[in-house]
Amino acid sequence: MIEAPPYAVFLFPSVSHVLKAEKILKARGTPHKLIPVPRHISTDCGVCLRVAVEQQGLAAEALQGLVTWERMVLL
Predict the structure, then answer these.
(1) Is residue 63 a contact partner of residue 12, using CB atoms and an 8 Å limit?
(2) Is pTM beyond 0.90 here?
(3) What are the structural domain ranges in the chain?
(4) Using CA atoms, how far apart are residues 10 and 64, in angstroms rounded to an integer?
(5) Which is it for strands 33-36 and 71-74: parallel, antiparallel or unpaired?
(6) Which of 4, 7, 28, 75 has its CA 20 to 30 A from that of 38?
(7) Rg of the Cα trace of the chain?
(8) Is 60 exposed, middle or buried (0-12, 13-18, 19+ CB in 10 A)?
(9) pLDDT value at position 75?
(10) Nearest-5° angle of CA 30, CA 36, CA 39?
(11) Phi/psi at 18 (nearest 5 deg)?
(12) pLDDT digits (tens, 9 = 90+) for 11-49
């Protein structure tokens, strides 16, 4: 059985925050994907950013001071 690669998911307080974060990561060339928030993490309806766990530090650094996120969860 092949295991799925681990991911880090950044959760944001609003859709506008996640869209701003996506724009920042895209400009920096950091690989990411906009996905629905997994139900087991939050029942809120919304979207979050998924990055490979190896990219989590780079993503956090890129977003630091530019956009607020609520938390980061490993999947």
Answers:
(1) no
(2) no
(3) 7-74
(4) 12
(5) unpaired
(6) 28
(7) 12
(8) middle
(9) 87
(10) 125
(11) -65, -35
(12) 999 999 999 999 999 999 999 999 999 888 876 768 999
Q: Across residues 50-72, what is the average pLDDT?
A: 95
Return the pLDDT at 40: 85
Give me the architecture of the 7-74 domain, per CATH. 2-Layer Sandwich (3.30)
> Which tokens is 15 given?
């859709």
Task: Residue 19: name the closest of 56, 53, 50, 47 by CA.
Answer: 47
**Identity of the amino acid at 28:** R
One-letter amino acid at 18 equals V
DSSP 41-72: T--S--EEEEEEGGGHHHHHHHHTTTS--SEE
One-letter identity of residue 47: V
How far CA 52 is from CA of 5, 6, 24, 33, 74, in Å, comes to 7, 6, 16, 9, 9
